[in-house]
């Protein structure tokens, strides 16, 4: 079997993770919620920095970025 740029090892890791998700569904749901929360946090920080950097250039997109930061941060938190 030919190994093309590590695809064989990536396939094995994906297969093992898929079996683990099927065996332990509650742990995978918890892990998915934590990872999505961290991703939303980083997206919010990125949009906040982007909004602050574009304030001097154009205020319209900057305000839009700041509104998106608020929406991204409040979407994950219970109101």
Q: Average pLDDT, to the nearest integer?
A: 75
The secondary-structure class comes to: mainly alpha
Rg estimate, integer Å: 19 Å
Number of helices: 3
Strand elements, count: 0
Low-confidence parts:
none
Taking the sheet with the most strands, its summary is: none
Share in β-strands:
under 5%
Helices and strands, in order, run as HHH
What best-fitting shape do the alpha-carbon axes yield? Answer: elongated
Task: Write a brief structural summary.
With 79 residues, this protein is an all-alpha fold. It contains 3 helices and no strands.
Topology:
Layout lengths: L6 H17 L1 H29 L5 H18 L3
Helix pairs in contact: 1-2, 2-3
Structural account:
The protein is mainly α. It is 81% helix and 0% strand. It is built from 3 helices and no strands. The protein has helices at 7-23, 25-53, 59-76. α1 (7-23) packs across α2 and α2 (25-53) packs antiparallel against α3 (59-76). The model has no long low-confidence stretch (mean pLDDT 75).
Defining traits:
single chain; about 80 residues; mainly alpha; elongated
């Amino acid at each position: 079997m030919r190994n093309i740029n590590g695809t064989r090892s990536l396939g094995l890791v994906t297969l093992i993770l898929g079996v683990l998700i099927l065996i332990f569904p509650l742990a995978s749901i918890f892990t998915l919620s934590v990872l999505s929360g961290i991703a939303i946090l980083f997206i919010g920080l990125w949009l906040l920095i982007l909004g602050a950097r574009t304030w001097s250039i154009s205020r319209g997109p900057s305000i839009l970025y700041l509104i998106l930061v608020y929406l991204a941060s409040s979407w994950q938190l219970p109101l």
